[in-house]
Design goal:
The complex is a heterodimer of chains A (365) and B (430). Chain A has 13 helices and eleven strands. By secondary structure, chain A is an alpha+beta fold. Chain A folds into two domains: 86 residues, Pleckstrin-homology domain (PH domain)/Phosphotyrosine-binding domain (PTB) (PH-domain like, Roll); 256 residues, no CATH class. The longest helix of chain A is centred in the first third of the chain and has 31 residues. Helices cover 62% and strands 11% of the residues of chain B. The radius of gyration of chain B is 27 Å and the shape is globular. Classes of the chains: A alpha+beta (365), B alpha+beta (430). Chains A and B meet through strand 1, strand 7, helix 2, helix 3 and helix 7 of A and helix 2, helix 3, strand 3, helix 4 and helix 12 of B.
Chain lengths: 365, 430
């Protein structure tokens, strides 16, 4: 192939002056201009990612450049210069390695968020000062109120007195880190939530659904079990730590954002199976000690869970998904000697059931 | 085909050099699709390499006075910078958190405090990020650079922002011009320093358009409303809705037909009309500002001259908006059809799993589509609009630019901007 001369411009990397030159491709790239004669070794040349037909080449690692717009010369250079596009990662196998390492790193971070952070939270929760935990509990309480639509607090005085006496009996010698503060709120979901700082929020439908005082007290004792183990503080630390880690490291890319959201929901959906079992054990102990029916917790668990089966989708993310197993475990622990005992007498229980009397009944939906 | 070099025209000192951009965008879709998908599977880590690839693409296709620009940054530098930034940010976040938790009087100002700290850090990061991009930009083998202090820049930015707040936004164009002067006056091409004569008062007129369109009508409607209520808004204007959720309110029917209701409605509709109009004005202001800043920039006897029109900024957004509307319409039809099918088939048929699968793919496909469209339509067209309307006057003076012997800054500068997600972090442009 006869080498033909191509016009181009040369810049020496020291000044921005463009020198007109002619380029000839022989064994090397020969550049000739006024007072200028260069020969660049082909193996050294690297090209820029410019739009054809414009091309810019220069010896790799140096600032000299030559620019030209000749497709034949560009094609010939591509053929004969082995490293023309090597600085470009898209041309090497580097991208696959990069992707694989990134996936490994991402999985490692997610693993840290799911397993590592909760493990740290377990160690950290007991050393959080009580004052700070109480303040956090207050903030979470406000948040929960907002989510539930600010349900009114049920505070009928005689019922409240019955409740306070019941709580006092149940928490005596209970080894709780703080005195629990129980509020009852009118809400149509049968549930009780434990918040940091020993706050327990009981939703009134739980009392309505309880057929015996022991069922209600059993759930309450279960929540005290969470207070004793500082589970809410642990869960809060774990959830915020994990979500902080994930959102910080994964960055803000459309696909990852939803991953983070799902991850957070799954992580914060509830306590671990171990934590629930420990709280059940605690409940059985408290109920046996304070003269109640320790198996009532199993009864109400099974009844409320049965209602939940209709809403199949929601139960995926519910915190108590393994009801049957738990009920069996509770009955096995409690034995039969406490069956039939009542922690409150009929009149007290009737009074307690009316704790929402102070709140005007809601208008029909 | 090769042409003889235009030696005659090149020699004149007072000739003007065009800036061109390859509008065919060949290969850009491939870069964007690959970048998006790889970022997805690598949990976002690939984004540093993706943005590097995008920058290399845009830089190399921008030809200034016959010579293409060159981007020499690497994804590795950005990634390392990000890791360092995370290492700096975690203690900052933890400190803010601990401070607000342990000092009750501080808790009330907690969000304000963290906003202030992150704002200053963000401006710092924006300036350092620009320094990184400048130092990785070459033209005819000459490296650009930026000196000046990011701390000074961040302090200037916060001072101006406070002044803007105090003056109800009137200081905004002066802030923009002042920061632009600081940026340009500390930008170097080789060893030559650029200079900007941008003035805030020349920006005042386009900025005041916002006041005419948004601010004045709202103030007028508000005054009319206050006059109608005798400067005494009744407490019972909104009453709890009967049978509604707690916190839900409705308009008190006692006030129907009174001037209060009429002017209240006027106020609300004024708000509803002026805010979209204000949004529509943003490209206009941006185009004016860009043109002004371009025209104000010079390097010795060489200066830039821009003929940018606002409509060149509107068109990309218009095309993008139309695509979004079209996509939402199609999505609505598909979901509606799926819903209908679901109703007739019932939940049992396993059909809902197909629907879920379809939604996942629809979401991913939509995200991919918009990511690519954004790069092709918004990024590329805005870039092309600014580049191709700009001309380098007295381009012969560029020949006098000499390379600088200063040290090239580290690559760790831009990570902070990404970690903080500020100022269009990892921007492709300057």
């Amino acid at each position: 192939m006869p080498a033909h001369a191509v016009y181009g411009t040369y810049s020496d990397g020291l000044s921005a002056r463009a020198h007109p030159v002619t380029l000839v491709l022989e064994d090397s790239l020969e550049i000739t201009g006024q007072d200028l004669r260069l020969a660049w070794t082909l193996a050294d040349l690297a090209a820029g990612d410019t739009a054809a037909p414009l091309m810019r080449v220069g010896p790799a690692g140096r600032a000299e450049r030559v620019e030209f717009t000749d497709e034949a010369l560009a094609a010939a250079l591509k053929d004969r210069c082995p490293d023309l596009y090597r600085s470009d990662p898209s041309a090497s196998g580097g991208r696959l390695r990069l992707v694989l390492w990134s996936i490994a790193a991402g999985i490692s971070v997610i693993g840290l968020a799911i397993y590592g952070v909760p493990a740290i939270a377990v160690r950290l929760a007991p050393v959080v000062p009580a004052a700070i935990e109480a303040r956090l509990g207050g903030a979470v309480d406000g948040q929960i109120g907002k989510i539930l639509g600010d349900p009114p607090v049920c505070n009928d005085a005689p019922a409240r007195a019955v409740l306070d006496r019941l709580i006092e009996r149940m928490t005596a010698n209970g080894g709780l880190p703080v005195d629990p503060a129980i509020t009852v709120r009118r809400h149509a979901i049968a549930n009780a939530l434990t918040l940091p700082g020993g706050r327990v929020v009981v939703l009134s439908d739980l009392i309505d659904q309880s057929r015996t005082p022991d069922e209600f007290a059993g759930v309450l004792a279960h929540e005290f079990g969470h207070v004793a183990a500082r589970d809410p503080m642990r869960a809060l630390l774990a959830a915020s730590g994990s979500s902080f880690l994930l959102s910080l490291v994964l960055g803000d890319l459309t696909g990852s954002t939803i991953l983070v959201a799902v991850g957070q929901a799954a992580i914060s959906a509830g306590y671990s199976r171990e934590a629930e079992n420990a709280a059940d054990t605690y409940s059985v102990e408290v109920m046996s000690r304070s003269g109640g029916d320790a198996t009532a917790l199993a009864t109400i668990l099974e009844r409320i869970a049965k209602d939940d089966e209709k809403a199949e989708f929601a139960s995926l993310l519910r915190s108590h998904p393994f009801t049957k197993e738990r009920a069996n475990r509770i009955r096995a622990m409690a034995g039969t000697e406490t069956v039939g005992r009542r922690i409150l007498d009929e009149t007290e229980w009737a009074t307690l059931k009316g704790i929402c009397r102070n709140v005007p009944a809601k208008t029909a939906k | 085909m090769s042409q003889p070099p235009m030696t005659e025209t090149r020699s004149g000192m007072d000739r003007s050099g065009a800036i061109t951009f390859d509008r065919t965008l060949r290969g850009l879709t491939g870069v964007a699709v690959r970048g998006f998908l790889l970022s997805l599977v690598t949990f976002g880590i690939y984004r540093f390499w993706y943005v590097t690839e995008l920058r290399r693409y845009f830089w190399n296709r921008t030809v200034v006075d016959g010579s293409p620009a060159e981007y020499s940054g690497t994804g590795k530098e950005l990634f390392l910078g990000f890791l360092v930034a995370v290492a700096i940010l975690i203690p900052v976040y933890v400190l803010i958190f601990v401070a607000t938790i342990s000092a009750p009087w501080l808790a009330a100002f907690g969000s304000l405090l963290s906003f202030l700290i992150l704002f200053v850090l963000g401006q710092f990061a924006v300036y350092r990020g620009r320094r990184y991009r400048a130092s990785r930009t070459l033209w005819r083998g000459i490296r650009l650079g930026q000196d000046g202090s990011a701390i000074t820049y961040a302090l200037m930015a916060i001072g101006w922002s406070l002044l803007t707040l105090l003056t109800l936004g009137l200081a905004f164009p002066f802030m923009r011009a002042s920061l632009e002067r600081y940026r340009i006056n500390h930008t170097l091409i080789g060893s030559s320093r650029m200079e900007s004569t941008a003035r805030g008062r020349s920006l005042l007129l386009p900025w005041l358009a916002f006041y005419v369109v948004v601010f004045l009508p709202i103030v007028g409607a508000l005054l009319a409303f206050l006059v109608a209520t005798d400067f005494n808004i009744p407490d019972d204007l909104f009453v709890p809705k009967e049978g509604g959720k707690p916190g839900e309110t409705e308009f008190n029917s006692d006030y129907d037909g009174t001037p209060i209701a009429t002017f209240g409605a006027l106020l609300l509709s004024t708000l509803g009309i002026t805010f979209p109009l204000g949004l529509l004005l943003i490209p206009f202001y941006r185009a004016r500002e860009t043109r002004l800043f371009m025209n104000a920039a010079s390097l010795g006897s060489v200066h830039l001259s821009s003929t940018l029109k606002a409509r060149q900024f509107y068109w990309p957004y218009f095309v993008y908006l139309l695509s979004v509307i079209g996509f939402v319409l199609i999505l609505g039809l598909v979901i509606g059809g799926g819903g209908l099918l679901l109703q007739t088939q019932g939940m049992e048929s396993g059909f809902h799993w197909m629907l879920v699968l379809g939604m996942v793919f629809g979401y991913l496909g939509g995200a991919l589509f918009f990511a690519v469209l954004y790069v092709r339509v918004i990024t590329a067209r805005l870039w092309a609009a600014v580049a191709t309307t700009t001309v380098v006057e007295n381009a012969g003076g560029l020949d006098a630019v000499l390379a600088s012997s200063r040290r090239v800054g580290s690559g760790l500068n831009e990570g902070l901007a990404d970690a903080l997600d500020v100022g269009g972090a990892l921007e492709v442009g300057f």
